[in-house]
Design goal:
Elements (H helix, E strand, L loop, with lengths): L19 E12 L4 E2 L2 E2 L3 E11 L4 E7 L2 H13 L8 H11 L20 H21 L3 H4 L7 E3 L2 E4 L19 H15 L4 E4 L5 H14 L5 E4 L6 H11 L5 E3 L5 H10 L4 E3 L9 H7 L4 E4 L7 H13 L3 E4 L6 H12 L29 E2 L2 E3 L12 H14 L6 H8 L11
Parallel strand pairs: 7-8, 8-9, 9-10, 10-11, 11-12, 12-13
Antiparallel strand pairs: 1-4, 2-3, 4-5, 6-15, 14-15
Helix pairs in contact: 1-2, 2-3, 5-6, 6-7, 7-8
The site of magnesium ion has 5 residues, from loops.
Length: 437
């Protein structure tokens, strides 16, 4: 490029340049309540990795991802290869991450705690670096990440109240503030608490825990208590096709969509052809490779995207384009997360016109004091979070909090998420089984 062609770019340069000078990967742990799911129960601590990418000029960008030890090792390897790469060159960042995984021994540890997943290894590792580099770009240019993603189309992002069956507390510990929810009345009480505190205007129940009819009764109890409220249930693929069709028919008048009734594209396609309800997934369409067969089979109506396994915010935008092209609807999946991930989800949703439903988040299940960002920016009010407009992700790292949550990681002794073993330590008869009903 000649020096005359640089007009319009940063003064005196051909292109914005922010070479990466250092990468820190810091595992952290935060308290997690005993939330039940199809593979067991959440352990007392959830693990995350905080990725801090330093670039020239003293600017740094933040990313957050799974904290399993195998994932941490991959992040470390990728981070080393990224030194010298321009944080503005996301193609080169992606190529270097891919290169770092060439000799990957495939040691597993994707951080979803026993859920079957065929997510792309490269996209999983790339994600946190993509987010951190966009944070850097935003800070250098003085614009929020939503601007880098094409511009905000909304100034607040809607989230759903994420209901869980749960024990009163972890065994041996005091009951937590949420209390027990093991039947329809408990779920309704939990929904009231969620709505009173956060003003949610849509509700999702994590199912796959009890026999399907009992969970359908909980959904019907929510419908009776909250007429007109959009409702969803997610049994995480543990229903047979036959059960899913029976439940689908029962819940047709009540549900906004049915999430992952079965595990495979073929089984969900069989269910979809028999019921009059949209099917959503974050389990059978989890990578770009899954899109052609799922679209051909008409298996799902809604893809619940998740930038942590779709390769970050840039590639999630690509997913949104494909969804629009093939008439798939879009919303967002969530694992237990901290504020950096939340900010990334919000910036992405702000810039994605075809987010069609209130997104999922585990945010209410986290104690407010358990975070690595400075408080006050991300708050759920009336079921929505205002999109930060400060440069980058719009959140700031709290170094002391990071040190505290890292110490908590060291002290808690957990090295990977394992909901099943934890459940079996309490109920030895618990078996991992899919489909279960
Ligand atoms: Mg799900």
């Amino acid at each position: 490029m000649s020096e005359h062609s640089s007009a319009g770019l940063l003064p005196g340069t051909n292109a914005p340049r922010s070479p990466i000078t250092a990468v820190q990967v810091v595992p952290v742990a935060f308290a997690d309540p005993p939330l039940l799911n199809s593979v067991g129960v959440h352990e007392p601590f959830a693990l995350r990795a905080i990725v801090i990418v330093h670039a020239s000029g003293g600017v740094h960008g933040l990313g957050e991802t799974y904290g399993d030890s195998a994932h941490l090792a991959r992040l470390e390897r990728a981070g080393k290869l990224l030194i010298g790469t321009d944080a503005f060159n996301l193609n080169q960042v992606a190529a270097r991450v891919e290169q770092s995984l060439v000799d990957d021994a495939g040691t597993g540890g994707h951080g979803t705690g026993g859920m079957v997943t065929t997510t792309s290894l490269t996209d999983r590792v790339l994600s946190a670096f993509d987010v951190a580099c966009l944070d850097i770009q935003g800070k250098v240019l003085g614009v929020p990440v939503s601007t880098l993603l094409g511009g905000a189309v909304r100034d607040a992002v809607d989230f759903s109240g994420y209901l869980f069956y749960k024990w009163a507390g972890h065994p041996g510990a005091e009951p937590d503030a949420w209390g027990e929810a093991l039947d329809p009345a408990g779920i309704v009480a939990q929904a009231h608490r969620m709505i009173d505190r956060y003003g949610f205007t849509a509700l999702k129940l994590k199912g796959g825990v009890f026999v399907p009819d009992q969970e359908a009764a909980a959904i019907e109890a929510l419908r009776a208590e909250f007429p007109g409220m959009p409702l969803r249930i997610d049994p995480n693929g543990v229903w047979t096709v036959e059960t899913a069709i029976r439940m689908g028919h029962r819940l047709e008048p009540v549900l906004e969509y049915l999430e992952d009734p079965c595990l495979s594209i073929a089984d969900n396609a069989a269910v979809r052809s028999a019921i009059n309800l949209p099917i959503a997934t974050n389990m059978c369409v989890v990578s770009f490779n899954d899109l052609p067969p799922a679209i051909e089979a008409h298996a799902v109506d809604v893809v619940l995207s998740d930038h942590h396994f779709w390769g970050g915010l840039s590639r999630s935008r690509l997913l949104a384009g494909i969804a629009r092209t093939f008439d798939l609807r879009l919303s967002m999946h969530s694992n237990s997360h901290l504020g950096i991930s939340f900010a990334a989800m919000i910036q992405l949703a702000a810039a994605t016109s075809n987010i069609d439903y209130a997104c999922d988040t585990h945010w209410p299940w986290k104690r407010a004091e358990d975070d690595v960002i400075r408080p006050g920016v991300l708050e759920i009010r009336d079921g929505a979070v205002k999109v930060p407009t400060a440069p980058g992700l719009g959140v700031e790292l709290d170094e002391q909090a990071l040190a505290r949550l890292h110490q908590q990681y060291l002290d808690c002794g957990l090295k990977k998420r394992d909901d099943t073993s934890y459940m079996q330590s309490i109920h030895p008869e618990f078996e991992l089984k899919s489909p279960r009903w």
